[in-house]
From TrEMBL:
Superkingdom per UniProt: Bacteria
Name of this protein: Flavoprotein
Entry-linked InterPro entries: Flavoprotein-like_sf, FMN_Rdtase-like_dom, NAD(P)H-dep_reductase
Domain NADPH-dependent FMN reductase-like, chain residue ranges per copy: 3-140
Gene3D superfamilies: 3.40.50.360
Gene Ontology molecular-function annotations: FMN binding; oxidoreductase activity
Stored Pfam families: FMN_red
């Protein structure tokens, strides 16, 4: 199973909209995939006590990451970086096994002109440190507010084609590593 991580807990996020379209793309590639929305993690994980003992309600979320064959992270850019909630989520997962030898792909989205390039480039060393296998084909979506139609779908056929190529390549990458 490829977990498509929507990397923010912002209500109505564009990350979630892009993740939904990427899920459709994986289905066209006959890949088992589903969306992992960070907005759904239990609020009690944010208690300072979670650093020493994770709440039982977090266990199913942690287990999904452990069981995943690959991770496709959709990250927005917030203030020149990725969302703090994504970093906190990463910190709460089991070390080192959550990402060890796990294939990881990245798609960045932003309102600005760089498409979350900085956010992705800051996430890659974190996953590298955790011994993940980073898929080199990244997709950056700048000007996200202009790229989505009223229903939240990406309007640009060229951009959808890049996401198709990324997903198809990542499916092969996961199979080779797995």
């Amino acid at each position: 199973m490829i977990e498509i991580i929507s990397g923010t807990n912002r209500p109505g996020s564009n990350s979630r909209k892009v993740a939904a379209q990427i899920l459709e793309i994986y289905k066209r590639h006959n890949a088992a995939a589903r969306i992992f929305d960070i907005a759904e993690i239990p609020a009690e994980i944010f208690s300072p006590a979670s650093y020493t003992e994770k709440p039982a309600s977090f266990a199913p979320f942690s287990q999904r990451i452990l069981d995943a064959k690959g991770l496709h992270i959709i990250t927005p850019e917030y203030n020149g970086s990725f969302p703090g909630v994504l970093k906190y989520f990463i910190d709460m997962l089991q070390f080192p096994e959550s990402f060890e030898h796990k294939p990881v792909a990245f798609t960045g989205i932003s309102a600005g002109m760089w498409g979350a390039l900085r956010a992705v480039e800051q996430l890659e060393p974190i996953f590298g440190y955790r011994d993940a296998h980073i898929f080199p084909a990244r997709v950056f979506i700048p000007g996200i507010f202009n790229e989505l139609d009223e229903s939240g779908k990406i309007k640009s056929a060229e951009l959808v084609q890049r996401l198709e190529k990324q997903a198809g390549g990542f499916v092969d990458f996961v199979k080779r590593i797995g």
